[in-house]
Every structure is written in C-alpha cells, then in structure tokens.
C-alpha cells in the first residue's frame, strides 16, 4: 500500500518537496526553532507574519509603480529580498533582487546601468507581477504545510 504522500520525498523534518520555490536547508533552520514539531507555532508565526509583510509590501510597490518612484521600489525590493531569503523563498528572493536592481537604474543582474526611467519601469512592472505570482505559489505551499490551506 503506498504512503500517504507518494509525490514527495521527505527530509529529516518531514518536509514535502517544495521544488525550486523554497530552499529546504534554510527553511529547516527556521523549523528547528519550533518547540513542538506537531504544532510548529514559532515557525508558523514567522511565516504567516511574512505573508502579511509581503502583501503589504506588494501593495506599496503598486503605489510607487504608479508614482514612478524608482528609488522607493528599489528599497522595497531590497527589504522583501532579505525577508524572503531568511525563510528560504528562493524565487521570491531572486525576483525581489531584480526589483532592487531595476529601481536602482540597473539591469536585472545589477551590473549595467540603465538610465532610461521608462525601461526600468517597464521591467519593474513585469518583475513585480512575477514576484507576486511566485509569492502566491509559495504561500499556497506553506499554508498546506501548516494545514492552513483555506
């Protein structure tokens, strides 16, 4: 008879296969702080606080995109990049890094200057939409992991 979850390989902490959206080693470090592996209250509170933080930050990004405020978009990208990296949210982190670069008048890698505001704004619009989509994917995965998939 097959195991309950045959679609994923589980690591030492019983994590499902998150694919390339979450760095398991980083996320496991957060889980190690939980007192109770069944409830996982500590890690859950950190992750769910991040969900609220990301939603709020994406709302601010939409506002600054409308205002064409590249500097603020860069700062918000930097901020969300750090938070997502701490939790191991790889794809969200990578997209936020691009937001940071485009807002700073750079290319997506941050190595070449891009002096044209309109080019930067066009790139920002696309990568912010991509980051939101990647966030929704990881949010669904983690809500399921924490048995909070509404």
UniProtKB/TrEMBL annotation:
HPt domain boundaries: 39-145
Keywords: Phosphoprotein
GO biological process, one term: phosphorelay signal transduction system
InterPro entries: AHP1-5/YPD1, HPT_dom_sf, Sig_transdc_His_kin_Hpt_dom
Top-level taxonomic group: Eukaryota
Record field: transmembrane: none
CDD domains linked to this entry: HPT
Tagged with keyword Nucleotide-binding: no
GO MF terms held by the record: histidine phosphotransfer kinase activity; protein histidine kinase binding
Positions carrying Phosphohistidine: 78
Gene3D superfamilies linked to this entry: HPT domain
Origin species: Aureobasidium pullulans (Black yeast)
Biased composition (Basic and acidic residues): 1-10
Gene Ontology annotations for the cellular component aspect, listed alphabetically: cytoplasm; nucleus
Protein name: Histidine containing phosphotransmitter protein
């Amino acid at each position: 008879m097959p195991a309950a979850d045959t679609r994923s390989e589980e690591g030492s902490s019983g994590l499902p296969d998150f694919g390339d959206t979450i760095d398991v080693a980083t996320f496991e470090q957060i889980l190690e702080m939980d007192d109770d592996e069944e409830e996982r209250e500590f890690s859950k509170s950190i992750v769910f606080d991040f969900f609220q933080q990301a939603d709020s930050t994406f709302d601010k990004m939409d506002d600054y995109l409308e205002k064409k405020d590249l500097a603020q978009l860069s700062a918000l990208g930097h901020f969300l990049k750090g938070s997502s990296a701490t939790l191991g949210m790889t794809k969200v982190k990578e997209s936020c890094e691009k937001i940071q670069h485009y807002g700073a008048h750079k290319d997506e890698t941050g190595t070449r200057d891009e002096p044209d505001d309109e080019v930067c704004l066009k790139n920002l619009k696309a990568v912010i939409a991509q980051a939101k989509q990647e966030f929704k994917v990881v949010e669904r995965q983690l809500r399921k992991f924490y048995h909070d998939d509404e």
